[in-house]
Write a structure and sequence with these properties.
By secondary structure, the chain is mainly beta. It has two domains: 36 residues, no CATH class; 89 residues, Immunoglobulin-like, CATH 2.60.40. Helices cover 0% and strands 46% of the residues. The protein has no helices and nine strands. A four-stranded antiparallel β-sheet has the order 7-6-5-9, with no helix packed on it. A three-stranded antiparallel β-sheet has the order 3-4-8, with no helix packed on it. It has a two-stranded antiparallel ribbon with strand order 1-2. A hairpin with a 5-residue loop joins β1 and β2. The radius of gyration is 26 Å and the shape is rod-shaped.
Length: 136
């Protein structure tokens, strides 16, 4: 039971908390409570890959050349630990003839932005999918 008071034979009381301090009977104990921050762990549920096509040149049935930027966005309002780093692996157009795999480093709230160029037989914009999130 968190926050309940318990008594001792001398009538002194102490709050029940995860960390307790024991004092000799009759002594008053000053308590300072510091809440330890909790952080979310980056995962496919709180990260989303985003592709921005910066240039697209199509050549009829020959397909298109795409210049793109790949970045991560968060879903919801996660808070990631500032000192921890993660590698996020993203596949673009998985299973196609031109599939690309990118690794993006995420550190706290900052992540790399990948800029790249690809040629495809398709005229459809590339579709990103997060494959894994690994601590570094």
């Amino acid at each position: 039971m968190i926050g309940a008071a318990i008594g001792s034979s001398d009538g002194a009381t102490a709050a029940v908390k995860p960390q307790t301090t024991v004092a000799a009977p009759g002594n008053t104990v000053a308590r300072t409570t510091t809440q330890t921050p909790t952080y979310d762990v980056p995962s496919v549920t709180n990260l989303s890959p985003e592709v921005t096509i910066t240039e697209k040149k199509c050549y009829g049935s020959a397909g298109c050349n795409f210049e793109y930027e790949l970045r991560l966005t968060t879903t919801g309002s996660p808070t990631f630990a500032p000192g921890k780093r993660y590698r996020v692996t993203v596949a673009l157009d998985e299973g196609t003839s031109w599939e690309r795999i990118h690794s993006i480093t995420l550190s706290g709230t900052k992540a790399d932005v990948i800029t790249s160029l690809v040629s495809s037989r398709s005229t459809s914009d590339p579709v990103p999918v997060i494959k894994s999130v690994t601590p570094l």
